[in-house]
Amino acid sequence: MRLLGDDIRKRVLEALGDMDAPVELVLVASSGADTEEVAALLEEVAEITDKLSTVRITPEEAAAQDLRPALTPAVYIRRSGERAARFYFAGAPAGYEFGTLIEDIVDVSRGGNGLSEETRAFLGALAEPVVLQVFTTPT
Questions:
Q1: N or C: which end of the chain has fewer CB within 10 A?
Q2: Are the C-beta atoms of 88 and 74 separated by less than 8 Å?
Q3: Which residue from 127, 43, 134 is spatially nearest to 96, judged by alpha carbons?
Q4: CA 32, CA 30: separation in Å to the nearest integer?
Q5: In this predicted model, what pLDDT tens digit does every residue of 41-79 receive, in sequence order?
Q6: Could you give phi then psi for residue 53, rounded to 5 degrees?
């Protein structure tokens, strides 16, 4: 059973048309119903373009790659062939987060992040690492 309707698939295809480099979605998870739903969603998105692939690894395999999510399932977005990931989603990137997932895929593919030079300079001057967490709840 498909999770994405034809209209959503069409809009995702349009958005992913802006990709430059291939991107890999890394699902860090053990087994469970939540994990299977996230895996199915990622696979369906990856089927839309040949510039997107998925890989599923265990939390232990993730730690060996310096990917250490606080919660699982987690979805890391990184350029294909790279070990480093810029950010990740904890839980299912569904609902409003789905649009953010698609935008983030394109940003990673293009090597950008949409931040202004002023913001980049500010962040570059920080003396210590910063962890930014955004929590959302469906309404």
A1: N
A2: yes
A3: 134
A4: 7
A5: 999 999 999 999 999 999 999 989 888 888 889 999 999
A6: -135, 165
pLDDT tens digits, one per residue of 77-113: 999 988 888 778 888 888 888 999 999 999 999 987 7
Q: How many domains does the structure of the chain reveal?
A: 1
Alpha helices in the chain (DSSP H): 6-16, 33-46, 59-64, 96-110, 117-124
In a domain, 21, yes or no: yes
C-alpha distances (whole Å) from 8 to each of 4, 24, 44, 79, 122 are 6, 21, 11, 24, 37
Q: How far apart are CA 135 and CA 11, in angstroms?
A: 25
Q: How many residues can be counted in the chain?
A: 139
Q: Which amino acid is at 36?
A: E
23-28 and 52-57 strand pairing: parallel
Domain of residue 37, residue span: 6-124
Closest to 89 in 3D by CA, of 81, 98, 31: 98
Q: What is the CATH number of the domain that holds 23?
A: 3.40.30.10
**Residue 25 DSSP one-character state:** E
Is residue 136 assigned to a domain?
A: no
